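Backbone-to-sequence.
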């Protein structure tokens, strides 16, 4: 009468095999036990994923190895942690040399692994289970394997030309519950269409069935599956464009495959999945080579190149060689296909302009901007907003007054509903790019409050738009804007928000630019060494991307950081490099500030030499006063009131120390009197405080 616990294990798929007219003897026994004792059955398959991962990890680590997370994930994905499959697949990889020992006796992954080759014992085990099935069930699995590891019952039913409900029953009752080869995933709806999704229990089941097909069978079935999916989704094929491209490519229908690769690339770019977009579009360009050279082929290539260009702008950076190659080819194709339709050229002109602008070739960029602007004006195209942005960037040449009307036109013309969709043609929302860049120009001109209003409008709209690249673009430019205003805390906040987006989206160039501003902010918090390291890191990354635009400004960040740690000589070296770039690239918008900072650092060096009893000045014939006067003269020539004020304050302080109070007061009063706004900003407050000292 002692109570006993009987624990039994079995494979449910074994029960599905009939023995002639009789069922497996365990089937009746299980039914009787459940009738007498209730639900005493525990499905270990539900625990398989967690335990399977542990098994894969533990099994690999029975030998010393350097097999990384990617290899381990690939092994688990293919075996599901199934013990036999895992052991045999690893044995196969060892025997083939795909996993080998290095000089230290550690097992490492070889250069390339063909995961499609199944070990004989695994293939034999799967083959045994598949051959138990009746022919109709085997046919169901064959069609399902063509669609993929996850498949749609309705697609299989239409290809096999059977009733959908009957097929669902066979999948759920026989192939799932009895044979344990597939499992139901989810019941979904696409409009009025019901979609019943199933998945092979192991990827190796799908792999075995698919590779059992002859090449001819695969071609026909891929075409059939692709055609059924097209019919199911109708005009809304975007969500499955990648699948359709694969099916039609395998079916040898290259033109249809290209259509869906382009659609998939556009969708990925719109979702900011730039690397995925580049993969689809690059694959499309490879497939294109199979087609004869026709006008239709050239048109398709042009579309692929334009979308590829926007994805490359974001990930590689505007100045990357791939960007130049892509837009040059697109320009050539545009001339060939649409010689008379100039509106088609706008995204290409923008891409070419951006390439030269960011490389610091400002004169070439300006010529392209003029060409773009003239075409947009003649066409009365909404792209005129982008053309105004390109023309406005002449402020980099120090032409602040000439740039202002273009930015004002952007502020006046920009309409969210009309212009935000252009984001996907140009890679960035043109209105927000114009507002954030225009804020820099307005600040330089001395319109401090207007600039702040533009920056706040740009930031609000960028957050509302939720386009990651546009938001990162806006945040980085506004971090520069707050650097202009000497507001390190706000600049750091904007930069760090941008950095988080750039890391997530893989925006390398904008990450570099944001890192430099964060470094500058750290310098003003007493973390000079960390600041210098971060600015150098950003400068190196920008240089690696061939991005030379704004480098004259960025080198002043480094000079300021050296100033904070008491290394004026290193700061002067950075400023000398910046001035050399000014002459080489004609990037003059920050030239006055470079000279002002040079004067401030020379004061420190001169003071140190006087303390040591050294005679004469430093840096040859240059002097602090000369640098300040040069800065004032440059700023006046550019009508850059903000930098003129800043340089005048520096000179007035020097004259105050030399007893030239009246001369200093007159000079500072003149420039201070030109301002009509922004009196709560740091620069104007410092100027007012100094005026009071000089008057006293």
């Amino acid at each position: 009468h002692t109570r006993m616990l009987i624990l039994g294990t079995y494979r449910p798929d074994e029960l599905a095999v009939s023995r002639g007219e009789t069922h497996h003897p365990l089937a009746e026994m299980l039914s009787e036990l459940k009738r007498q004792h209730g639900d005493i059955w525990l499905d270990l398959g539900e625990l398989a994923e967690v335990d399977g991962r542990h098994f894969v990890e533990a099994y690999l680590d029975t030998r010393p190895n350097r097999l990384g997370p990617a290899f381990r994930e690939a092994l688990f994905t293919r075996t599901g942690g199934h013990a036999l499959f895992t052991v045999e697949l690893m044995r196969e990889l060892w025997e083939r040399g795909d996993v080998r020992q290095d000089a230290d006796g550690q097992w490492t992954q070889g250069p390339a692994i063909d995961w499609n080759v199944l070990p004989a014992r695994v293939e034999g085990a799967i083959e045994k289970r598949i051959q138990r099935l009746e022919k109709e069930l085997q046919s169901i699995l064959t069609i399902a394997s063509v669609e993929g590891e996850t498949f749609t019952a309705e697609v299989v039913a239409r290809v096999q030309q059977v009733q959908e409900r009957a097929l669902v029953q066979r999948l759920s009752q026989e192939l799932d519950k009895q044979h344990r080869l597939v499992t139901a995933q989810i019941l979904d709806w696409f409009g009025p269409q019901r979609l019943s999704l199933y998945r092979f229990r192991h990827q190796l089941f799908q792999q075995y069935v698919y590779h059992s097909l002859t090449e001819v069978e695969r071609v026909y079935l891929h075409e059939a599956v692709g055609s059924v999916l097209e019919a199911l989704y109708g005009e809304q094929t975007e969500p499955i464009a990648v699948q359709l491209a694969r099916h039609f490519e395998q079916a040898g229908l290259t033109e249809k495959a290209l259509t869906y690769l382009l659609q998939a690339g556009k969708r990925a770019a719109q979702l900011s999945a730039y690397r995925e977009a580049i993969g689809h579009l690059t694959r499309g360009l490879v497939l294109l080579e199979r087609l004869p050279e026709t006008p239709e082929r050239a048109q398709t290539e042009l579309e692929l190149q334009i979308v590829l260009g926007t994805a490359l702008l974001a990930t590689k950076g505007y100045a990357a060689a791939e960007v130049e190659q892509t837009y040059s080819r697109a320009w050539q194709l545009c001339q060939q296909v649409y010689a008379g339709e100039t509106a088609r050229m706008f995204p290409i002109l923008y891409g070419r302009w951006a390439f030269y602008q960011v490389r610091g070739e400002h004169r070439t960029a300006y010529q392209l901007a003029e060409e773009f602007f003239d075409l947009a004006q003649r066409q009365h195209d909404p792209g005129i907003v982008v053309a105004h942005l390109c023309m406005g960037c002449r402020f980099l040449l120090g032409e602040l007054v000439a740039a202002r009307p273009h930015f004002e036109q952007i502020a006046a013309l920009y309409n969210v509903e009309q212009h935000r969709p252009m984001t996907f043609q140009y890679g960035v929302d043109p209105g927000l790019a114009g507002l954030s860049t225009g804020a820099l120009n307005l600040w330089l001109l001395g319109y401090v409050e207007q600039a702040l209003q533009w920056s706040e409008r740009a930031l609000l709209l960028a957050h509302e738009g939720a386009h990651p690249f546009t938001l990162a673009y806006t945040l980085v430019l506004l971090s520069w804007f707050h650097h202009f205003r000497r507001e390190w805390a706000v600049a750091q906040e904007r930069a760090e928000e941008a950095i988080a987006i750039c890391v997530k989206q893989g925006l390398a160039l904008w990450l570099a630019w944001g890192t430099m501003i964060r470094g500058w902010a750290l310098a003003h918090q007493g973390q000079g060494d960390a600041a210098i390291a971060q600015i150098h890191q950003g400068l190196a990354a920008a240089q690696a991307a061939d991005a030379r635009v704004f480098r004259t400004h960025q080198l002043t960040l480094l000079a300021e950081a050296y100033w904070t740690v008491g290394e004026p000589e290193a700061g002067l070296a950075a400023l000398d490099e910046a001035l050399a770039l000014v002459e080489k690239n004609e990037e003059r918008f920050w030239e006055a500030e470079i000279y002002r900072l040079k004067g401030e650092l020379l004061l420190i060096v001169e003071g140190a030499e006087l303390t040591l009893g050294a005679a004469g000045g430093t840096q040859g014939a240059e002097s602090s006063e000369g640098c300040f006067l040069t800065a004032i003269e440059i700023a006046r020539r550019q009508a850059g009131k903000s930098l003129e004020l800043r340089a005048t304050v520096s000179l007035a302080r020097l004259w105050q120390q030399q007893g030239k109070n009246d001369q200093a007061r007159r000079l500072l009063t003149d420039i201070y009197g030109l301002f009509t706004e922004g009196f709560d900003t740091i620069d104007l407050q410092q100027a007012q405080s100094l005026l009071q000292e000089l008057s006293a």
